[in-house]
Amino acid sequence: MTFAMTDPDQNLFALKLLELARMLEPEGNRVQFVRNCEKQGIRGFLQSYPQVWRQITDDPPREGITPDRDYLVSRAAFALRSAAWQEQLLRVLADHQIPALAIKGVSLSMTLYGDLGRREFGDVDLLIDPGDAPKACSVLNDFGLRPVRPPFIGPGQEAALYRYSKARVFCGKGQGEHLDLHWRLLSAWIGADLLPFHEAWERAQVLRREGLKTWRTLGPEDTLVFVALHGFQDGWPKLKQLLDLTIALQVLPYRWERVLELSRYRACLVERAVELAVRLFQIPHPGEMTHHYSDDQHALAAWLMMARASRTPQRSLLHPRLWSCSSEEALRRRLDALFTPALDDILSVDLPLPLVPLYRLVRAFRLIGKAVSRSKNPEE
């Protein structure tokens, strides 16, 4: 099942999306607004509704706006190139006995929107088992890909990267050849052990598209949990993420009880994400309506505050009310997230391999240093 783009009722859905886009970026002329829609990853979707899109742009478009057809053609071409490159990367990993799931990108475009080019994205994302991460990075290096950040690190730093981080970014030689190689789906701020690879692999669904070999991606419930939690992890900076979640709630063949089960100690956060989508887009709730937000205006204000923030939420995600587990487990997980070394912590010092666990102390000392600095300079 895919989103019914031709359904006249969906014009109201597109109008709501347009309204949210205007709230998020209230300043600027039509040229700037179209560019904002591109930045938010929703231009192609809105163009599917001519009556709505005419409220945004002119025909022919004003100077500075890519014509509609040219924009869709360029996005479709990029999606096809990305799909072909994704297939190549999956084959390289499979040749070295490294199973991988293709996530986000073309996979979400297919499962939610019904075609490779319907969803806008900028790179290829693959998920592998954490134990395969060192080997996979070496294989990709030999294949000609180069890590973007950090490009060169010591053995201890590399071991810490695999132990504490969730992904590494690579680039190829061709245009648009960017890969996010994930060995965890979510950061410690949400829950690094949620949706582990071996379980996600067993629940995976197989996608098919003419001209491409079949590939595996997250199953319906895993997809919904990931989209919901990933949105909160980033702070919902792009309307595309909220759009993905809203459409996922309508088209995926999931069981709501299973979604909450897979969410485990973050079920409360998934409920909040779903309630946001339900209230902002006025769609049916998949289960019993939660009331984490007092009303629609409260949900709108909460989303705008997150989406307009200059930083990801991180520590605000550790608030006690955002956990669906005992207070003792929540406290343990909050402390673990707070003292999990970030990339900057790992890059700040090159520890030898036997001392990799001490990166947690590096993290602690750097947090103390930042707190002291803020106390001396409260205006920063």
CATH A-level architecture of the largest domain = 2-Layer Sandwich
- Determine the mean pLDDT: 93
Helix content bin = 40-55%
> Gyration radius, to the nearest Å?
21 Å
Notes on the structure:
By secondary structure, the chain is an alpha+beta fold. It has two domains: 10-325, Beta Polymerase, domain 2 (2-Layer Sandwich), CATH 3.30.460.40; 338-376. 52% of the residues lie in helices and 7% in strands. β6 and β7 (215-217) form a beta hairpin. It starts with 9 loop residues before the first helix and ends with a helix.
Task: Explain the layout of strands and helices.
Blueprint: H1 10-24, H2 30-39, H3 43-47, H4 50-53, H5 68-95, E1 101-103, H6 105-113, E2 124-127, H7 133-143, E3 146-147, H8 155-164, E4 167-171, E5 178-182, H9 197-202, E6 205-207, E7 215-217, H10 220-234, H11 239-251, H12 256-263, H13 267-281, H14 296-308, H15 327-338, H16 343-348, H17 359-376
Parallel strand pairs: 2-5
Antiparallel strand pairs: 1-2, 3-4, 4-5, 6-7
Helix pairs in contact: 6-11, 10-11, 10-12, 10-13, 11-13, 12-13, 13-14
Give a concise summary.
With 380 residues, this protein is α+β, with helices and mostly antiparallel strands. Helices cover 52% and strands 7% of the residues. It has helices at 10-24, 30-39, 43-47, 50-53, 68-95, 105-113, 133-143, 155-164, 197-202, 220-234, 239-251, 256-263, 267-281, 296-308, 327-338, 343-348, 359-376, and strands spanning 101-103, 124-127, 146-147, 167-171, 178-182, 205-207, 215-217.
